[in-house]
């Protein structure tokens, strides 16, 4: 086995369980013959990671083309083979069963399920996979075989059309990993039904991470006029109508998303209450404020606004702007339901941003609910990227 030796100062993070070894944290790489390697190791090779004092840190896959040179798969000296992946996936499934997420769930949440760079969403009998690092991509056949054997699914689909793969030296691609099937499926959530377009929807087709938060709006939307921006396929909005809202308007910049949202409203018999329009939320919210429109509840679920540390300021400015515009549209004593889905804007920064938007719009806010993503996306303390979703409901009153 090839051995990767870490620099001295890297010990605490890796020893505490973080699975990433950055290229600049490696002191040396030693070949099977004990000699220091001068040329890069073939991407995807399983290597042993050792601390500077030769103590064993774990075993993982290497890719020196990537900033994250090694992702650790196991802390034990165990074989990384098909059985290893089967065991990990089975364990993750048993965990989901234990915590009560079975019909639809994020079955594998990468690092949080000790399978770095692997995402698997389960939509009843269908599975959608993303392998976003070179080393895990090599194990796709083993992963598919494990799913076949544990679930005997109706279909498995690969949504690897994500730009991050290129940083790993991988191509973007999507397609069937099982016999072809109709990729337009229907899932059930909280007593409602939703069309999911596995092939052309965003990310894996559906945002399971908000599944519990959609329930959290139940009481505040009763009898309310509701506006939802960044609606995607209308999930929050259709929940609002189901929970007794008087009227619901959902907007999204994507025509395709709006078409799917309309289909979803009809599927649930809520299309007389729930309307959707294709619009840029920033422009629409500003315009409606000018027109003095007001809503009892405004819901915002914007995209990440940033993918890199360098542009956190830009993301914060985006969150502030949209929340500010949202708050201006809320009746005195109404509610703002607002989310952020990037770990780069942490909880403190997110709450500060909402607070500052309230200050600028001369509103008082009172926290009703603050949550993270659903529990089928486990959070591992110390692994920042697993703690990413912030979901906040505040009551908004005029000063
Ligand atoms: N609330 C949704 C997920 C929203 S994802 C759910 O729970 O399923 C973010 C959405 O914002 C995407 O659908 C994207 O098309 C949309 N979006 C991005 N920029 C936008 C903009 N400027 N105005 C309106 N929608 C936008």
Task: Describe the overall structure.
The protein has 399 residues and is an alpha/beta fold. The chain has three domains: 3-74, PUA domain (Archaeosine Trna-guanine Transglycosylase, Chain: A, domain 4); 82-183, Transcription Regulator spoIIAA; 207-398, Rossmann fold. The protein has ten helices and 20 strands. The chain has helices at residues 11-15, 82-99, 134-137, 140-151, 164-167, 235-242, 255-267, 281-290, 312-327, 347-360, and strands at residues 2-6, 20-22, 26-30, 46-50, 56-62, 68-74, 104-109, 118-123, 126-131, 155-160, 173-176, 184-189, 192-197, 225-229, 247-252, 274-278, 295-300, 330-340, 363-371, 390-398. The strands form four sheets. It has a seven-stranded mixed beta sheet, sandwiched between helices. The longest helix has 18 residues, at 82-99. It starts with a strand and ends with a strand. The relative contact order is 0.09. The mean pLDDT is 97. The site of S-adenosyl-L-homocysteine (SAH) has 21 residues, from helix 6, strand 15 and helix 8.
